[in-house]
Amino acid sequence: MVMSLSPVSGSKESGLRGAALLGKTSSSIMNDIKNVTVPCLDIEYLLSAKVKLRQEGLLDSSLKTNLEFAINSMEAFPAAKRRNVSLTLEGERQLVRFMAGTPVLLYTVHLGPKGPEFHQRVQVGAHLTASCLNEGHFAGHRCKDELEGCLEQARRTLSTEAESNPSGLGELELRIVCGELHLTYSTQQPQHSLIICPRRRVYLGKALNLERLLEVKTYLEQTGAMGKGLLICFQHLLLHFGQYQEENSRVVLQSDGEMVELLSGSPDYHSTQHYIFTDGQNQAHSHRVQDMDLWEYD
After folding, report:
1. How far apart are CA 60 and CA 38, in angstroms?
2. Whose CB has fewer CB within 10 Å in the chain, the N or C terminal residue?
3. Beta-carbon neighbour count of residue 284 at 10 Å?
């Protein structure tokens, strides 16, 4: 899914609370940021900084939560994403910024509606084009869409934008929101924003595969993406597995504001589609749609 927004605000790092910045000058804002220089964002340096922040009385509950979330997130990052970066953490009274080398990637962790969020930002040159996207920025990320990953979607979107509006590439911002990944590429003064929000699509092969289905269920549970209603949909699918084991089919599970598409056979066209969803009492229901054009008549 691609969304387009215009205009957008300036290029300040995300995660800063608007109320905390209201009415403040640039110098007073800088006074609210405690800068910490580290060789890199390896875990031992972050843990050491955590101890020092506690000793200085700066480690409030919000900062502690965001720092621990950042440490857990950084564990999955390759070494290249822990060097030449900055990490800004939101606290209740102060921001803390870790500086490692000359930052190319700018990280921000703040408390969102569902808990801590890890945002990544890349400041590009005069124009934002598909060549600005770096595979290394996506390292450690598993895209929600197995058929067309968020990197491929972003490249395709920027290529289309370059053809339709080449003059706007100098005032462009691209946001990618995919599971735990919040990655933004931005020019200096963006006036137009493109947003990539991939659907969760899983390709199961020729037909619905029980082992593969259990792997998907396990992954969603481990990553916290499996809500109660979505779990009920998966349980319904597993209990009635034989009814859905068809070639070239699409099974859609929907609940808790989340949707999962399980695809088999052709990636682009499916002769049979099943929809499994929950009602207000979290009871699972299913609906089957057969493509009339493929029916054979005697």
Report:
1. 21
2. C
3. 19
